[in-house]
Specification:
The protein is α/β, with parallel strands linked by helices. The protein has 8 helices and 9 strands. Strands 3-2-1-4-6 form a 5-stranded mixed sheet. Strands 5-9 form a two-stranded antiparallel ribbon. The longest helix is centred in the C-terminal third of the chain and has 25 residues.
Length: about 210
């Protein structure tokens, strides 16, 4: 998909926060519950609070929102956000298929050879600092500081969307290289993938 083709599509970024941290000793993500999620597009953000007694269906609503987009953008999207979202395929009898997606972190890893944090990239490329550390989200959630986690989640989705737009226009990012102890420029072309997905929504057959 060319840059021109991407720019004509309906695009959003998505960010998910969970009620607990990833357990490296466990396989899969079916043990992770979504605390909240945010979908951001050119018109702003929409937030979803899943793990609350009065709003139990918002995870499903997040999926129903995503199916209206041609391209879903994220940072560590494949290894985390999509994996958590796909839990709803079995938990709520949803069938997810046909997603076009762009995982910025995947393209960075393939270009530089290792993972870079979103904080590092946004601070040096966009001059934006994240409001919280993602690892704190589960503890804040357990403390019932829902609005704080939701605000962080929403800001993260907005930052990822801005980073996506920046890379499309400029074809590079800046990051701090600890080994060299200086800010480096990395040429970057984004890839659109389609082997996971959520373009169509339907109820699974009983």
């Amino acid at each position: 998909m060319t840059t021109q083709a991407i720019e004509t599509k309906k695009i959003c970024s998505v960010d998910i926060e969970t009620t607990e941290l990833i357990d490296r000793e466990k396989t899969g993500f079916d043990y992770l519950d979504m605390a909240c999620g945010s979908v951001f597009d050119e018109n702003g953000s929409r937030e979803f609070l899943e793990a609350s007694e009065d709003r139990p269906e918002e995870g499903i609503e997040l999926v129903r929102t995503l199916v209206h987009y041609d391209l879903i953008v994220g940072f560590n999207l494949c290894s985390f956000d999509l994996a958590v979202i796909k839990n709803y395929e079995s938990k709520h009898q949803l069938r997810l298929a046909g997603l076009n997606y762009c995982d910025i972190l995947l393209d960075i890893c393939r270009s530089v050879g290792y993972r870079l944090s979103l904080d590092n990239i946004t601070e040096n490329t966009l001059k934006i600092q994240k409001s919280e550390k993602g690892a704190l989200a589960p503890d804040l959630w357990k403390q019932r500081k829902y609005s704080r986690v939701l605000t962080y989640c929403s800001l993260d989705a907005a930052i990822v969307f801005k980073l996506f737009q920046y890379i499309l226009e400029n074809k590079h990012i800046f990051y701090f290289n600890k080994r060299l102890n200086r800010i480096c420029k990395l040429a970057l072309n984004l890839s659109v993938r389609d082997h996971l997905g959520i373009i169509t929504y339907e109820r699974a057959a009983d």
